[in-house]
Write a structure and sequence with these properties.
The protein folds into 2 domains: 58-155 and 205-229, Beta Barrel (Lipocalin); 158-204. The chain contains 3 helices and 13 strands. The chain has helices at 2-41, 46-49, 158-202, and strands at residues 58-63, 68-73, 77-78, 87-92, 96-98, 101-104, 109-118, 128-138, 141-144, 150-153, 209-210, 215-219, 224-229. The strands form 4 sheets. Strands 2, 4, 7, 8, 9, 10 and 12 form a 7-stranded antiparallel beta sheet that branches. Strands 1-13 form a two-stranded antiparallel ribbon.
Length: 230
């Protein structure tokens, strides 16, 4: 009787032990299946699905030496008021094209400096103004460049000077003729001519003055390589 009771107790503990070891396995399997299901059903992140922005591509194009640059002045400069090294600004009046493609658009900014500013003299020497452009800003890029520069000289006043002297001589001759006959006319002409010459010597010649919007032209003296979007 005791042996049967002992066997029954041992069998009961054995079943409990067996059931206790299997239970964790079932839980782990359930957890594993649950994790797998969640991973499979998880939504794709927005960062992964967002479209990639296209990267802009560029190519380099070389503008040959000798290319003409047609500019519109943006600064005011003058032979009698500007100074050497004074900054000067301008913009391209027309685009620069290579093989039918625009490589520098119209309106691109060009920079430079005054290289000469000589006012008109009273006795001799005409006014002269010169400038040179050495930088280009186009499509968000900045470039150094070399150009032939631009210069302008005041118009000659010899004709006007001669007219002033002639008028003075004529007036003097007329007055001399009235006062003293033929010899008086000759003396009057000489005196009148001297007076006209004095007026010319006391009067300054014309100046060179350029304001915003003035059309000027220069050209490249060295090749210029620019970046162009493709």
């Amino acid at each position: 009787m005791l042996k049967k009771l002992a066997c029954a107790i041992a069998l009961t503990f054995g079943l409990v032990a067996c059931n206790g070891e299997k239970a964790p396995e079932n839980n782990l399997a359930a957890d594993a299946s649950g994790t797998t299901g969640n991973a499979a059903s998880a939504p794709i992140s927005a960062a992964t699905s967002a479209p990639v922005a296209p990267v802009a591509s560029f190519k380099e194009v070389t503008i040959p030496s000798g290319t003409t640059l047609r500019l519109s002045l943006q600064s005011a400069v003058a032979s009698d008021s500007s100074r050497v090294e004074q900054p000067v600004r301008a913009t391209l009046r027309s685009p620069v094209s290579i093989n039918g493609q625009v490589v520098v658009p119209a309106g691109s900014e060009v920079g430079g400096v005054v290289t000469e500013a000589e006012g008109s003299g009273r006795v001799k020497g005409r006014a002269r103004l010169a400038m040179r452009f050495n930088s280009l800003h186009a499509s968000g890029e900045a470039y150094d460049m070399k150009t032939s520069g631009y210069a302008q000289e005041a118009a000659a006043t010899k004709k006007q000077d001669a007219e002033k002297i002639a008028i003075g001589a004529g007036a003097g001759a007329a007055l001399g003729a009235i006062l003293g006959g033929g010899s008086g006319a000759a003396k009057g002409a000489a005196i009148g001519g001297a007076g006209g010459t004095g007026v010319v010597l006391a009067t300054k010649g014309k100046e060179v003055r350029l304001g915003p919007g003035a059309a000027i032209t220069t050209r490249l003296t060295a090749p210029l390589t620019v970046r162009v979007k493709t």
